Amino acid sequence: KNEVEQSPQNLTAQEGEFITINCSYSVGISALHWLQQHPGGGIVSLFMLSSGKKKHGRLIATINIQEKHSSLHITASHPRDSAVYICAVRGYGGSQGNLIFGKGTKLSVKP
Amino acid sequence: GAGVSQSPSNKVTEKGKDVELRCDPISGHTALYWYRQRLGQGLEFLIYFQGNSAPDKSGLPSDRFSAERTGESVSTLTIQRTQQEDSAVYLCASSLQGAIDEQYFGPGTRLTVT
Questions:
Q1: Which pLDDT belongs to residue B40?
Q2: A98 CB near a chain B CB, below 8 Å?
Q3: What is the mean pLDDT of residues A61-70?
Q4: Are A96 and A30 in contact (CB under 8 A)?
Q5: Does residue A69 surpass a pLDDT of 90?
């Protein structure tokens, strides 16, 4: 079983729909990252959070430490949101530079 | 300002050859990370440099892989005696003060071993 599980693997939505991507993890963490990987391969960091909720524009990320679960929400989705969304966690101990990645959720937003 | 840059953007090499991949982090960023993404797979951590501390090499898959960083600037990832399974996109990222900070990713180097 992977230490970081994302669901769904693939998601197709119509423009304007509200989207939720889920991430569950099995290890104790000090922080969780949400990343966006564009079709061309470039990766952008969307959020880094260790508790509660963060919002940036139409994107909202939440985390529940007790349940070891995080969600990424996209409101009023747009075709330009089409990308792979990756959840990654940073554990305790060691250098803490070692991120453990989920396999990603491929989102396609149709006009 | 300038982001993280990597070179070359694409590299095709023959099995058994050595390759060097370069990463220029954002100026002033003390932390630098190397990751690998094989086709259709998720990202894998390779190595992490933080300031003058000993690097975290726990993700390097074999002793054919090594990386160096000069101070808080350029880093090179070297793969010796390349194998076909080394084919992947190699991504570099940097962050301001270390693992507690947001990471900024470079565009990656696509390595193909024939």
A1: 84
A2: yes
A3: 96
A4: yes
A5: yes
Q: Which is it for the CA torsion B2, B3, B9, B14, positive or negative?
A: positive
Give me the amino acid identity at A63: I
Partners of residue A93 in chain B, C-beta under 8 Å: none
Tell me whether B59 touches chain A (CB under 8 Å): yes
pLDDT per residue of chain B (114 residues) written in tens, 0 to 9:
589 999 999 999 999 999 999 999 999 999 999 999 998 888 999 999 998 888 999 999 999 999 999 888 899 999 999 999 999 999 999 999 877 788 899 999 999 999
Q: Which residues of B touch A33 (CB under 8 A)?
A: 103
- The tokens for A96 are 């803490």
Work out the angle at residue A56's Cα, subtended by the Cα atoms of residues A51 and A59, and round it to the nearest 5 degrees: 85
Structure token pair of residue B64: 């054919």
Residue A17, CB half-sphere, CA atoms under 13 Å: how many? 16
> Residue B106 phi/psi, 5° resolution?
-85, 175
> Is residue B108 within 8 Å of B89, Cβ to Cβ?
yes
CA–CA dist B76, B78 (Å, integer)? 6
Mark yes or no for CB contact A44/B103 under 8 Å. no
Distance CA B90, CA B46 (A): 9
Mean residue pLDDT of chain A comes to 92
Q: Are B48 and A97 in contact (CB under 8 A)?
A: yes
